[in-house]
Design a protein that fits this description.
Layout: H1 3-17, E1 20-25, E2 33-36, E3 46-52, E4 61-68, E5 74-84, H2 88-94, H3 97-102, E6 112-126, H4 131-139, E7 150-154
Antiparallel strand pairs: 1-2, 1-4, 3-6, 4-5, 5-6, 6-7
């Protein structure tokens, strides 16, 4: 297994544990906003988000999403296109109790929109510093390259 394959797998594992990202459209002055990703293992390089139709991202376009893992040991910046995909079968597949709490009208709520972010590229960082590296950080030593983190720039997050 290559290092790139491993770091991609780590990203999806970490995101499954804590699927919260900051997502924003590129090319405008609007800030990113926190969203909960719905992961579908059948669709590679795609994240899904349930939002209101009046959400600033609902118009779609170029987008960036930033992810920080629960343990703050993995970081990702994902770039791609975001658009609405209101396929009833997909909504049914991704629907859960947490989403239902936001949409009182259920799957047929008139304000419901399912966004999909098709990832075109990503930059991934894993900060799994070794024990000796952590001790050096604590006492001001120099960390060697084999004691620090992993990094990858990828065109696909498929593992």
């Amino acid at each position: 297994m290559s290092d790139t394959h491993k770091i991609k797998q780590t990203m999806w594992d970490k995101m499954a544990q804590s699927p919260f990202l900051m997502v924003g459209l590129t090319g405008n002055d609007q800030h990113s906003e926190p969203l909960t990703a719905q992961l579908d293992r059948d669709q590679v390089d795609t994240l899904f988000f349930f939002v209101g139709k009046d959400n600033r991202l609902a118009s779609g376009g170029g987008a960036m999403a930033q992810f920080v893992s629960k343990g703050h040991d993995f970081f990702a910046c994902l770039a791609g296109e975001i658009r609405q995909d209101n396929d009833p079968a997909l909504i049914d597949k991704l629907w859960n109790k947490q989403v239902e709490a936001w949409f009182p009208g259920g799957k047929s709520d008139p304000n419901l929109a399912l966004l999909r972010l098709d990832i075109a590229s990503a930059e991934l960082w894993e900060t799994d510093i070794s024990l000796s590296g952590r001790l050096k950080m604590l006492f001001g030593g120099t960390i060697k390259s084999d004691e620090d983190s992993s990094h990858a720039v990828v065109e696909t997050t498929a593992v």
